[in-house]
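Complex record, two chains
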Amino acid sequence: MPMVLLRCDKDIPEREKHIYLKAPDEDTRTYLPLANAPTIPGTLSERGCAFCGAKLVIGGVLKDTIQMIHGPIGCAYDTWHTKRYPSANGHFQMKYVWSSDMKEPDIVFGGEKRLEKSMHEAFEQMPEIKRMILYTTCPTALIGDDVKAVAKRVMDARPDVDIFTVECPGFAGVSQSKGHHVLNIGWVTEKVGTVEPTITSDYTINFIGDYNIQGDTQLLQQYWNALGIQVIAHFTGNANYDDLRGMHRAKLSVVNCARSAGYIANELKRQYGIPRLDVDSWGFNYMAEGIRKICAFFGLEEKSEALIASEYEKWKPKLDWYKERLKGARMAIWTGGPRLWHWTKAVEDDLGVQVVAMSSKFGHEEDFEKVIARGRDGTYYVDDANELEFFEIIDAIKPDVIFTGPRVGELVKKLHVPYINGHGYHNGPYMGFEGFVNLARDMYNAVHNPLFKLAQTDIRGTAEVELKEAV
Amino acid sequence: MTTLTVNQLLAYVQERCLWQFFSREWDRTENIEGILGKAADLLTGTPLTLETPMDRLFYADAKVMVDNLRGRFPEIAELPAAEVQGLISDLKVKVTEIAVTQSRNRELTQKLY
């Protein structure tokens, strides 16, 4: 089956290169959706911007760090509180938002003085906080404010603070993926190796590409504690700024989200010789495999089997209860990129669910290689889908549930298709054994929710409804 | 002669193994050589070299792969070493074609990460 031109795309035929319907005996040598390419003007893309990729996804997760956003207030506000990543210190990073609050005169005359004042103000208001990430945005990058020079002045004036600058305005890339890239490479270049961590175990890892969504990191931490493995840095779930400066001391980089954080794992391997091990942290089968691999690396095989057996005993009966009731359900995954390939086989193997359509907002071609290799025949694989394409694909595949963000989710609810928040979760965490039971429970509640059927029923019957014009 | 085919092994690798799709051509080639090399050693009972961190990494991935292959294809345990080596060697060729030489991924040959 070749690439697909949907009916709604007849006026933008370039979209055909982004949509693939897999047929038996095909592989990614023949067909691979074009990805990480500019959005075609005029389509209703669901993508985020490059700044958002750096701030909202990675930097903003840190629990002891001021996130200073040099730009208009909207850039700060719109990347605050839209993702739920708690922390063990009372969720400092979710309570506050910081901005230089640029106004028109600052754009005309330059914003560096305003930024410097804002940075001092932030440190004065929060004297216990000594770390800051400073981000540029579209307007402040366009006028050429030198944020590195400002950061240096502030650090000179306050010797006990450390500031990392991310120069990745929204227009820097085609999607939020560029922000991941800029932050990863900047951090490993400027900050890794500047703090020596305290080593408490012979078995040390960095856990990379997990952002503690509704407690994912904290759930997985129970496993590392049980195995006696020290996580030097979580990149960046529930992490402190200085944890990430000591990443060079880990013996192994374990990567979950290879899209948002594969870069830093690659550089840690290249610069410090730390091997990179990719795992899937969602799903029983995959999680067990990931634990087995980490333990095989360190020679801890017996401990891994004991942990897996105890988790299976605790959680597998619950998972199976949901599997009985979800078998055959048709699911669509419309998220960022990696969750497509993390989830497609996990839900099939563990829950008997069929994934019939997948769309990625910022995945690269590597992500499509992974998901097409794992995914089913007869499934749609779409890059940077637009709103009309979502409608047409829903008509074609008739999903029982869609895992997506609230923006698309609220849209599909109006079509009486239930959605689960695939980014921030409904009632997570979803990682690990316990987490996958939570995911199954949320999916069960969505698929079997009687309200959706009731909402579809036209209670007017055959009687004609009198329409009155507004007077 | 075994009825087990290289395509059955390839289907397993495609479905389960993230290491085949690392970021760049050189990473993928290194993984294919390293992990499938260790898998062949495990399947044929050849003594393993686990001196470097990369040796241990390849072993970790290969061990899970071999355990899974033994579960899916019990006949693999009965195969003579030469036949196992032949299958793994053919598998390397196939995975390399899909993930490296015939991949349509435009980022594979970029010099930087």
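Note: The interface with chain A takes residues 14-16, 18-24, 27, 53-54, 56-57, 59-61, 63-64, 67, 97-99, 102-107, 113 of chain B (CB under 8 Å).
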